[in-house]
Amino acid sequence: MYVNGKSLLKDIAQPALEAKILLLKAVSMSEEEFYAGSDRRLSTAQKKLYYRLISSRLDGFPLAYLIGEKEFWSIPFRVFPGVLIPRPETELVVDRVIKVSSGREEIIVDIGMGCGNIAVSLAKELPLARIIASDISRKALKNARLNAAVQEISKITFVYGNLFTPLKKLNLEGKCGFIISNPPYVSDTEWRTLQEEIIKHEPRKALVAGKTGLEVIRKLVKESPVYLKSGGYLIFEIGHGQKDKTMEMFGSGWRDVKCFKDLHGIPRVISATIA
Questions:
Q1: Whether residue 32 has pLDDT greater than 90
Q2: Do residue 121 and residue 234 come from a single domain?
């Protein structure tokens, strides 16, 4: 079964890995059983499910949606179809928050939290923080609440709303220690050049910001000073080639404006402190 699956997936970037992952999903097998060479007999239903998963993968359906899960910050996150799939480079946002956090009680706001990967990861790492996570997608909110429940995190406040609207409703002006985000930063033109499986299956509104790709980022920089307390941080992800234009958005009211590169050497995360 596994060998056949690997052969069928030969045109996928990592056929051996994906064939294994789909097999584990289809037959509810652990990795330990797989590597131990388990000789369990598969039922006809399990075989059919395995080949159906492979067929869907060959049709471009994202692996994370097929198995319902994506690892982030060494945590398995449930991912609903139609909710943005977490990317490993976004872990840099979590890393930066942890490195500059005092570890004391402070308000951390995650704008556009998707499946909740950033918010839940920070809740586990910073147990004293008060975390508020928002999104304009009802499906994302449901997905994030599930992940918090699975990880036994009860202290995240999930709210529905666009950008800073939830913060205004919660009267958070001048109270936030951190405002963080993995915002939409793809331009309309770039969207048409992305992988077909992204265009067909992932939520466009979670990826595309508008004509330039900087529309949402500009709003984050412009409006976050209203809600950050003195010395508070704005930390967010940017797209390839957006560093210079993003850095230019910060005026004299900001200090320590820095850009950090991801593991591929691409400028990926901006961090700035309100003066």
A1: no
A2: yes
